[in-house]
């Protein structure tokens, strides 16, 4: 049975006097009256700094902003200027309070992160894209609507697919991801994306168009989706021992091996006097002696030495040795 004896009043007073006489490890007495830097902390709350300063995410957004112009160029028929804003952290409810009740909300699955993200666009921007894509001018259209037409739905699909491919390429330096659309909504209340109180990371982009106010669109990541790669998103310096980019290497190798090179074979070198060369006519025969070996030239430089032969009824050259190219 454990003892339940409590300290007496004298023992408690002795302990307090000992603390006042000296601090930890014989240091000076602790003066609790001095002001100390204290900040409140709620245990169990979400840490908004889990991704640090979002350095890698900002780099991805800047790269995405540059390359996404190719998606809007065929529709707007002009090269728009697209800029990215620093990522923000809010609850999904707080984000929905700042947008319209009727929006283009497309949910996209990210397979490698086992999560999803959402692309949001204002209906006015969709109307501008649709009008310009089908031959109209790039003008602002003020109209109140509660649903998209079939033509606008097709434009949303084209834009979403194009932005997903661009986003995959922008993420490639950090990690390889595959994205595909899984749903589309027009009302934030019906978007089965995350719970209202869940934290999301909002990446906003502004598209500057001539003669009227800039248009914006957002990409929203749930905080839980990016937590598994938080250390990578915080990193500012890449490791000196970088992983092999097989895709880049294969593309480079394929590009190099696809360069066309013109080869020529020299069977012999006849010698003709100038007087005979002047009077040569079609049908004349120039005698020549064939060399024992045939020289194969690459860009007028001797490359290989071989011998004449035949393969499948066609003339061929059997390569014997490689010759040194002139510097």
pLDDT < 50 runs, ≥5 residues: 237-243
Mean pLDDT: 80
Can you write the helix and strand succession as a string? HHHEEHEEHHEEEHHHEHEEE
Distance between the termini: 95 Å
Sheet with the most strands, sense and barrel status: 7 strands, antiparallel
- Protein structure class: alpha+beta
Q: What is the highest CATH level, the class of the largest domain?
A: Alpha Beta
Structure description:
The protein is of the alpha+beta class. It folds into two domains: 55-236, Chemotaxis protein chec (3-Layer(aba) Sandwich), CATH 3.40.1550.10; 261-322, Surface presentation of antigens (SPOA). 30% of the residues lie in helices and 23% in strands. The protein contains ten helices and eleven strands. It has helices at residues 9-21, 55-67, 69-76, 92-97, 123-133, 150-171, 223-226, 230-234, 246-257, 274-278; strands at residues 81-84, 88-91, 104-110, 115-121, 179-185, 199-208, 215-222, 263-266, 294-298, 301-311, 314-322. The strands form two sheets. Strands 1, 2, 3, 4, 5, 6 and 7 form a seven-stranded antiparallel beta sheet that branches. A four-stranded antiparallel beta sheet has the order 8-9-10-11, with no helix packed on it. It is elongated. The termini are far apart. Residues 237-243 have low confidence and may be disordered.
């Amino acid at each position: 049975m454990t003892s339940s004896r409590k300290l007496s009043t004298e023992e408690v007073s002795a302990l307090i006097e000992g603390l006042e006489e000296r601090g930890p490890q014989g240091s000076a007495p602790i003066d609790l009256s001095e002001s100390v830097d204290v900040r409140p902390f709620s245990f169990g709350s979400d840490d908004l700094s889990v991704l640090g300063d979002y350095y890698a995410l900002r780099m991805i957004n800047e790269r995405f902003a540059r390359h996404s112009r190719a998606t809007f160029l065929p529709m707007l028929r002009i090269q728009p200027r697209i800029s990215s804003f620093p990522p923000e952290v809010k609850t999904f409810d707080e984000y929905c309070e700042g947008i319209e009740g009727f929006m283009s909300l497309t949910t996209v699955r990210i397979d490698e992160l086992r999560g999803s993200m959402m692309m949001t666009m204002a209906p006015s921007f969709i109307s501008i894209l649709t009008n310009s894509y089908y031959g109209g001018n790039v003008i602002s259209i003020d109209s109140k609507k509660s649903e998209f037409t079939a033509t606008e739905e097709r434009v949303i699909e084209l834009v979403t697919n194009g932005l997903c491919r661009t986003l995959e390429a922008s993420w490639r330096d950090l990690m390889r991801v595959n994205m595909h659309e899984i749903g589309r909504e027009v009302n934030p209340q019906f978007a089965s994306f995350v719970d209202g109180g869940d934290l999301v990371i909002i990446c906003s982009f502004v598209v500057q168009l001539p003669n009227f106010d800039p248009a914006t669109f957002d990409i929203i990541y749930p905080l839980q989706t990016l937590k598994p790669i938080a250390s990578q998103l915080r990193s500012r310096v890449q490791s000196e021992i970088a992983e092999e980019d097989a895709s880049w290497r294969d593309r480079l190798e394929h590009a190099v091996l696809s360069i066309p090179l013109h080869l020529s074979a020299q069977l012999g070198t006849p010698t003709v006097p100038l007087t005979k060369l002047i009077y040569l006519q079609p049908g004349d025969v120039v005698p020549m002696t064939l060399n024992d070996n045939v020289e194969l030239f690459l860009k007028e430089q001797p490359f290989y030495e071989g011998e004449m032969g035949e393969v499948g009824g066609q003339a061929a050259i059997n390569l014997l040795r490689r010759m040194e190219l002139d510097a």
